[in-house]
Design goal:
The complex is a heterodimer of chains A (122) and B (108). Chain A has 122 residues and is an all-beta fold. In chain A, 0% of the residues lie in helices and 52% in strands. In chain A, the strands form two sheets. In chain A, strands 2, 4, 5, 6, 9, 10 and 11 form a seven-stranded mixed β-sheet that branches. Chain B is mostly beta strands and 108 residues long. Chain B has no helices and eleven strands. Chain B has strands spanning 4-7, 10-13, 19-25, 34-39, 46-50, 54-55, 63-68, 71-76, 85-91, 98-99, 103-107. In chain B, β9 (85-91) and β10 form a beta hairpin. Classes of the chains: A mainly beta (122), B mainly beta (108). Chain A binds chain B through residues 35, 44-47, 59, 61-62, 95, 100, 105-115, and chain B through 33, 35, 37, 44-47, 50-51, 56, 88, 90, 92-93, 95-102.
Chain lengths: 122, 108
């Protein structure tokens, strides 16, 4: 079955960077995209961006444009999300999700990774 | 960006009753690019509906999505105890993709 397995929780200091991985299995990686979402405590889901599994094209949300980089390794079917210059309000659970489109960010999401808690302290 | 407002915030029903969950968009959602998800405690969300009305693989036919434009509805025809969860909506017709805050469904 299709699975997305994320790396474990991280604790970081303000100003540091974090890299979360998302190992996929059970489908042809290049036929779909990967989006990254997050949910901060008491907040709703926030879309961070999308990357094509086919050609690595990306689309980032404006809120993260300057601080996030999404990449893929098609040889292993793994996606990565790096967030830089962390602040305390970046404390959240980060999700990778398989996006229905490999051509654009206009996608529904199925399935979801299990989530990775990133805690940022000063 | 498109803001999605879900109502009610909480819904408490008995098994066998009908659940009607609403999601209203602040702007027209392009081409019915609309989805619904279910999240049970301790689990990642799961896709229920995409394209406003298409059921995802394995979703029982008691779950129905409808709507267009700015008003969308998820209907559960006869709720079962296993339907206790938070349900949230998503639009993917405009960038950025956005989500509603969710409706909590309690089955008494």
């Amino acid at each position: 079955q299709v699975q997305l397995v994320q790396s474990g929780g991280e604790m970081k200091k303000s100003g540091a960077s974090v890299r979360v991985s998302c190992k996929t299995s059970g489908y042809t990686f290049t036929r779909y995209g990967i989006s990254w979402l997050r949910r901060a405590p008491g907040q709703g889901l926030e879309w961070m961006g999308w990357i094509s599994g086919h050609n690595g094209n990306t689309k980032y949300a404006q809120n993260f444009q300057d601080r996030v980089t999404m990449t893929t390794d098609t040889s292993t079917g793994t996606a990565y999300m790096e967030l830089r210059s962390l602040r305390s309000d970046d404390t959240a659970v980060y999700f990778c999700v398989r996006a229905s489109s490999t051509w654009s960010e206009y996608s529904w999401f199925d399935p979801w990774g299990q989530g990775t808690l990133v805690t940022v302290s000063s | 960006e498109i803001v999605l407002t879900q109502s009610p915030g909480t819904l408490s029903l008995s098994p066998g009753e009908r659940a009607t969950l609403s999601c209203r968009a602040s702007q027209h959602v392009t081409s019915g690019f609309f989805a619904w998800y279910q999240q049970k405690p301790g689990q990642a969300p799961g896709l229920l509906i995409y394209g406003a009305s298409s059921r995802a693989t394995g979703i029982p036919d008691r779950f129905t999505g409808s709507g267009s434009g700015t008003d969308f509805t998820l209907t559960i025809s006869r709720v079962e105890p296993e339907d206790s969860a938070v349900y949230f909506c998503q639009q993917y017709g405009s960038s950025p993709v956005t989500f509603g805050r969710g409706t909590k469904l309690d089955i008494k």
